[in-house]
Write a structure and sequence with these properties.
3-stranded mixed sheet, alpha/beta
Length: about 130
């Protein structure tokens, strides 16, 4: 049985909750990623911001040079513990219509799990390895 921690991607890029939208845009472009979790000083996940969020904000006339990312990010972030089973992660994604889960341990962000991480496990090991 595999746990979320066994197959998750370690978070390479996080965004401090006080970073300005224009700065986040630069980070996403530089890191070649479509989005990143927003964290507070304690390392707790407080949201998730994507390029789409920024494009929408710019479209409605938002000022990306004065607005913190925390004000435009999605705050309904779905989390899962690194010790939970991959099967629970798949069910959590399905029920929450989520494409990715923020992985936490003791309340702190330790990684990210995407649909593709689960697909890779199933393609390499089979459905029976999802576990209970």
């Amino acid at each position: 049985m595999y746990t979320v921690g066994d197959i998750m991607s370690q978070v390479v890029c996080t965004i401090p909750d006080d970073k300005l939208v224009c700065e986040v845009e630069g980070v996403l472009v530089t890191e070649k990623i479509s989005g990143a979790p927003i964290i507070n000083l304690s390392g707790m996940v407080t949201g998730f911001i994507s390029k789409s969020d920024i494009v929408h904000f710019d479209f409605i006339g938002g000022d990306s040079y004065t607005t913190p990312a925390q004000e435009i990010c999605r705050i309904n972030v779905v989390t899962i513990d690194s010790t939970d089973s991959v099967e629970l992660a798949a069910r959590t994604m399905f029920h929450n219509k989520a494409h990715r889960l923020m992985v936490v341990h003791d309340g702190k962000l330790v990684g990210m799990l995407s649909e593709m991480d689960i697909v890779k496990l199933v393609s390499e090991k089979g459905v029976g390895k999802l576990g209970h």
